[in-house]
Amino acid sequence: MAARTLELDAACVAAVDLARAAAEGRATVAGVGEHEGCVREDARVVTHYFAVDHPGYQGWRWAVTVARASRARVVTVNEVVMLPGDGALLAPAWVPWSERVEAGDVTPGVLMPTADDDPRVEAGFTGGDTARDADPAEWAATRAVVAELGLGRERVLSQYGRDEAADRWVEGEGGPHNAMTKQAPGQCQGCAYFIRLSGSMGRQFGVCSNEFSPSDASVVTVDHGCGAHSDVVEPQRGVDLPRPVWDTITTDDLLFD
User: How far is CA 165 from the centre of its chain?
Assistant: First the structure.
């Protein structure tokens, strides 16, 4: 059995002026251009397409859907929208906030919470979530001890977090793979301005304390370097100035009668 051909409703097809007027009523910035045809949506339901007359909406079309009730002669407007066509200029795909945040986006007044399942952190020596279910007096004593040792944090950096930070620092400007290090007279591990980090990270990283270095107050690797190394000294520490041609320094004691 041959498929039944879906016929366009003649009254809806002829309602071009009605559809154009409806589109013009919605158009505030983008105008309504030439009629680009129509398609059948359902029985006695047709959508008319018009070009969008605006340079900022290239490839977009006004879509006006008109309909006619059964046994009725009057065609009415059902919907007016603007839709993208082939080659239309579209906005970039929406990216979740958690994926849009980049390094340096936290500015004064901006809060960036750490997720409960963030792999960069883990429960600290205070017991984390389990401490809330334990004996309050027992955990109060535990917190007092670890606070004296400087360890009283609910969460601490995990091994994954340390490895991730280490990889980022090594590949960054404070690492060894840059033009600054290649031209440096020495490495940071032999510089007086190099302050090592404590703990396991101190084996590979420290902080620069030379105000004239571009890495001042930044984390650097032990094999990083710059031209402000402490072992670089001036070949001559002082300059002997000759006696002035005209003496304007000494004074004569004048005696008055």
Answer: 17
Backbone Cα Rg of the chain: 38
**Average of pLDDT values for 11-39?**
91
What token pair was written down for 112?
A: 């960036």
- Residue 241 φ/ψ, nearest 5 degrees: -90, 140
What does the pLDDT average to over 234-244? 68
Stretch (H or E) spanning 164: helix 159-171
Strands (E) in 54-210, as ranges, are 60-68, 75-84, 121-123, 155-157, 194-196, 205-208
Q: Do residues 101 and 112 touch, judged by C-beta distance below 8 A?
A: yes
H or E element, residue 38: strand 31-42
Output 2 or 198, whichever has higher pLDDT: 198
- What's the rounded mean pLDDT across residues 174-192? 95
Instruction: Identify the pLDDT of residue 130.
Output: 54
Cα separation of 1 and 16, whole Å?
Answer: 35
Sign of CA pseudo-dihedral 90, 93, 97, 99: negative
